[in-house]
Amino acid sequence: MSLPRLDFPTLLHNAAKWPLPGKVLAGCGLAALVLLMGEVVYLSPSRDRLHGFEAREQALQQQLAEKAELAASLEARTDQFRAMEGKVAGLLGHLSGQSEVPALLEDIARLAVANGVWVEGITVLDEEPRPLYIEQPMQIGATGAYHDLAAFVAALGGLPRVVTVQDVALGHDGALLRLNMLAKAYRRTTQSATVREAVDPGQPFVYTPSFVRDPFQPPALQVTRVPGRPALAPDLARPRGLLEGMTIEQFEMVGTLSLGAQAFALLRAGSRVHRIAVGDYLGPDHGQVTAIQDASIDLVERFPDEQGGWLERPRTLVLNVNS
């Protein structure tokens, strides 16, 4: 059994004879079909394109607002960029255009002597080129007391030529400290050699050990230090004594001794105890004992400054009550 074939022409021809409800129903179905076809073929793609245009319009409006804000601040940004260029030019102008390793080595040796530090070795490493400058690293090993090493590092960073100190390591070396550090000097490259503007380096940092505790010594063994002041040169032709071959930090005051009207101080260095009086010399910096009290010893050291003169620095050794 098969379904009867639907004859649309005949059906449409006879539509005029349909009753009114049938005509209305057929008209509604036909209108719905036309609307559905129009939605699928024409309206839906147009609506998608409209949504895309609206999203693009919002993105363009946002970009326009950002560009307008950037244009409004362009003058301020230009002034800021010029100021930054001036700072960079000034910093590059502060750098030397040629290698100054020999002069820098002389400065390191001079600062070491001025601060009572023994430089054990300096290894000049290979240069490291950078876009605007060239780094000259040097590995430095030095031995000395804590405050002397700190003053040496501070003076090294305050040199007229640009020097930075990195990778600082401290360790015990007997009664003293051993310092290992990486110092870097800088010079201009050939590309930046035309920049010659000067820059004010500012006030250099000066390490002052006054009232600063040595973290590597117990409080009872602290040595009071004050900055040096101008002094006369010591007698360099004077024969040096045995106790001048040791640093002040190697001595420990363990007591006093009186013989009549004369007072003596008892200092221990290692396993030996030494007796000193006012006027005796102590330490490598021409330190001369000026006073002996029951609980301390006062002395004055003389060491060279950075201008060819001499400085005087009072120091105090405190009695170790636990000895």
From TrEMBL:
It holds the Pfam family PilP. Signal peptide: none annotated. This is Pilus assembly protein PilP. It comes from Pseudomonas paralactis.
